[in-house]
Amino acid sequence: MSDKIDTGDSVFHRPTGETWIVACVQDGRLSWVGWPEGTASVADCDLTERATPESRLKLLQDMAAMSQPDHRQRYAARRLAAAIITLDETASQCEN
């Protein structure tokens, strides 16, 4: 299993002994799903379970639709928008 941690993955945070579901990873830090909002160093976390592509997409969609915007909501919206742009570019290449 690759050690790259991504949205929807489960991680074990060694300093607290807690297991979290990852909301986002940016600049060597990750944010977890839930409250309170916060971040931790990726270096302090061990990947315990990889999210499926379907569960990752569902979590991104749910976070993008959050009514109280925070950095996780903005991250999800940007990531979904980037995925749509990539799909649009691929479709355009297929048409040519």
Provide key terms for this protein.
single chain; 96 residues; alpha+beta; five-stranded antiparallel sheet; 39% helix
Structure in words:
- The chain contains two helices and five strands.
- The chain has 96 residues and is α+β, with helices and mostly antiparallel strands.
- Strands 4-3-2-1-5 form a five-stranded antiparallel sheet.
- A hairpin with a 2-residue loop joins strand 2 and strand 3 (29-32).
- Helix 1 crosses helix 2 (71-95).
- The radius of gyration is 15 Å and the shape is globular.
Helix and strand arrangement:
Blueprint: E1 10-13, E2 18-26, E3 29-32, E4 39-41, E5 45-49, H1 53-64, H2 71-95
Antiparallel strand pairs: 1-2, 1-5, 2-3, 3-4
Indicate the multimeric state: single chain
Specify the helix fraction band: 25-40%
Compute the average pLDDT: 88
Q: What characterizes the major β-sheet?
A: 5 strands, antiparallel
The helix count comes to 2
Spatial order of strands in the largest sheet: 4-3-2-1-5
Total beta strand runs: 5
